[in-house]
Amino acid sequence: MLHLVPEQDTAPQGPAPARAARRRRRQVAGGAIDPKQLITSLPDAVRKLHPRVMVRNPVMFVVEVGAVLTTLSAVLAPSVFAWLISGWLWLTVVFANLAEAVAEGRGKAQAESLRRTRGALVARRLRTWRVGIDRRDWDEQRVPAADLRPQDFVVVEAGGVVPGDGEVVEGVAAVDESAVTGESAPVIREAGGDRSGVTGGTTVLSDRIVVRITSRPGHTFLDRMIALVEGTTRQKTPNELALNILLACLTVIFILAVVSLQPMAAWAGASQTITVLVALLVTLIPTTIGALLSAIGIAGMDRLVQRNVLALSGRAVEAAGDVNTLLLDKTGTITLGDRQAASFVPVQGVTQELLADAAQLASLADETPEGRSVVALSQRYGIQHTDADFTHGRFVPFSAQTRMSGADFAFRDDFCRIRKGAGAAVTDWVLRRGGRVPAEAGWITDSIAAGGGTPLLVAVEDRGGARVLGAVHLKDVVKPGIAERFADLRAMGIKTVMITGDNPLTARAIAEEAGVDDFLAEATPEDKLARIRQEQAGGNLVAMTGDGTNDAPALAQADVGVAMNTGTSAAKEAGNMVDLDSNPTKLIEIVEVGKQLLITRGALTTFSICNDVAKYFAIVPAMFSGVAGYEGLEKLNIMGLHSSTSAIASAIVFNALVIVALIPLALRGVRYAPSSAHALLRRNLRVYGLGGLVAPFLGIKLIDLLIQFVPGI
Ligand SMILES: Nc1ncnc2c1ncn2[C@@H]1O[C@H](COP(=O)(O)OP(=O)(O)OP(=O)(O)O)[C@@H](O)[C@H]1O
Ligand SMILES: [K+]
Ligand SMILES: [Mg+2]
């Protein structure tokens, strides 16, 4: 099929949008942040100070309220200490907002370039379209792409841009999808099969296709992609919500503790100022994780975008971190999916020509790639039927339920039905019509299947009764390198199951070659769905990759449903992720990103809480220093800080700086190497727990050494 691509269009340079897309991906790859980003995101961070925005983050909202209180008290009773604390509390809130703004800012540039792609597209809409209608009578209308509605038909010719998402209903074309995927190699899009989906904004390089629009205005793939990278549609995931509630509870507990401290302190004759009480509260509550939580989530989605995966739900990204079963569709997912007719194998007493003739009649209206390849192969036998041969006929289209296709027609005064399809389905059809199926038919299909090919039995029914003529051998190729990647999945503790509508023998041959752990053959869409429910009922978290309309129910049911970008729009609508590279082993990276997200969140939570414990040692002794009866607390001043005011100020400054210091880690994610959950937990406790305990002692001491030179501290 690749000969369809004109030479000049495959030049390595690629069109400008492709280069821009690749550059854009390179910029964000690796996740390193440019210090300039911190500066450019500053205005956004300040804008986020609005209380309506801040309440969404309870921990930081408390810090903001504290900043207001200390500012008021600094105005009423000015002192260097009061101004220093209130200033750094405002900085703490700004730093937290900065983390989120930087995370969002990285998507904004990408959204800008996608917006340009969407631009002002013009569509060539057809007033009517039906299969086989004479093309010259087509009545075309030029309309803005924004006016397209589902069920509209548009025509796109070489050089034209596809105006909206849809399904190719007629024709085959090479399409440049680089504006959306960043990948400059053209892909084939064709009517009928599992490669019929086209995306608005992509460019047709060759030929002419008719597309049935499937998306509503404003809800196209590009629209969704823009909203996604900008983070405008991001909702908190269940785990994130749970952690937020936990952090809010901790905050309330510490508020109560600090409030009840005051009467106690007053009784001891060490009544504390508002500034000191707020400072104590802020050091105790988990500000580090409170500040970084949202950025961690955004960065996780972003890391998937960098890998050319669009996650349409944050819940799915989290679920990916815990997936232990992966279900894959065979054709087009594990294999290249270009099933081509390779040979005709007739039964005894039937010639190849007769079989080829019948197979062609059964495929004339079969718009699937398989159907077209049967027609092409039979033409090599000099057989060339035309629609005129069908006087009173009807086509029977292929369906995943019947697993057959064919035609019923009056043919040269005879009445005739022809079917081709899966061995079991056609055998059943012949038997129901009173025919006999020779054992030879079984041998033929088995021998094709044993080699990994897909046999299509061909049968006819006419005055002579129903009988099998032979089989078509469809060949497909397992994607290269797939076995190694499945081995990687096994090492990560993920079981792979191939599910296919194909017969058990073909399924076994392909399963062995691809190295999957298990397979399910002759599966209808309902079987695929049932298998997922069964795995889920067994407590497994299931991911599914597929491309066909018949995979859609399963993709919707799976915890992580990854649709191939080459697939049908039904599959892309049903899944919660789309892989722009259409690579089934991409799940390995999706799982890694999911795990990394969970680990990063866990590690920074551990760090944050351990951190606060240490700061306690700076502030509490300072509050009670010199108070009779509380000399014992002096022992807690193990850091030997300069004065009580410098101790408290140092703790607040450290508390704010640690947020900025951790922004790069939150965005890049904690390093992830495949290993057991226990080993990961132990490592994290060691690094982030211990680190969280030790860092403040060093940091606060250092800041104290500097801050003591500030006059008035
Ligand atoms: N165009 C066609 N005409 C008749 N029969 C077909 C046609 N295409 C496929 N079949 C038969 O129907 C069976 C099921 O179809 P298909 O393989 O597309 O199902 P599937 O569930 O999508 O599986 P897969 O995982 O292989 O994509 C095939 O094994 C083949 O025997
Ligand atoms: K804190
Ligand atoms: Mg399929």
TrEMBL record:
UniProt-annotated location(s): Cell membrane
Domain of life from the UniProt record: Bacteria
Top-rank EC class of the record's enzyme: translocase
Membrane topology according to the record: Multi-pass membrane protein
Subunit structure: The system is composed of three essential subunits: KdpA, KdpB and KdpC.
Keyword DNA damage: no
Residues engaged in binding ATP: D366, E370, F398, S399, A400, Q401, T402, R403, M404, S405, K420
SUPFAM superfamilies hit by this protein: Calcium ATPase, transduction domain A (SSF81653), Calcium ATPase, transmembrane domain M (SSF81665), HAD-like (SSF56784)
Domain P-type ATPase A: 136-230
Residue numbers spanned by region Disordered: 1-22
Species, as recorded: Streptomyces stramineus
Transmembrane segments: 57-75, 81-99, 241-262, 274-298, 647-667, 687-707
EC number: 7.2.2.6
InterPro entries: ATPase_P-typ_cyto_dom_N (IPR023299), ATPase_P-typ_P_site (IPR018303), ATPase_P-typ_TM_dom_sf (IPR023298), ATPase_P-typ_transduc_dom_A_sf (IPR008250), ATPase_P-type_domA (IPR059000), HAD-like_sf (IPR036412), HAD_sf (IPR023214), P-type_ATPase_bsu_IA (IPR006391)
Protein name: Potassium-transporting ATPase ATP-binding subunit
Keywords of this entry: ATP-binding, Cell membrane, Ion transport, Magnesium, Membrane, Metal-binding, Nucleotide-binding, Phosphoprotein, Potassium, Potassium transport, Translocase, Transmembrane, Transmembrane helix, Transport
A Pfam family that the UniProt record links to this protein: E1-E2_ATPase
Catalysed reactions listed for this entry: K(+)(out) + ATP + H2O = K(+)(in) + ADP + phosphate + H(+)
Chain positions recorded as Mg(2+) binding sites: D547, D551
Gene: kdpB_1
PANTHER family membership: POTASSIUM-TRANSPORTING ATPASE ATP-BINDING SUBUNIT
Residues at the active site: D329
Role of this protein: Part of the high-affinity ATP-driven potassium transport (or Kdp) system, which catalyzes the hydrolysis of ATP coupled with the electrogenic transport of potassium into the cytoplasm. This subunit is responsible for energy coupling to the transport system and for the release of the potassium ions to the cytoplasm.
Family: Belongs to the cation transport ATPase (P-type) (TC 3.A.3) family. Type IA subfamily.
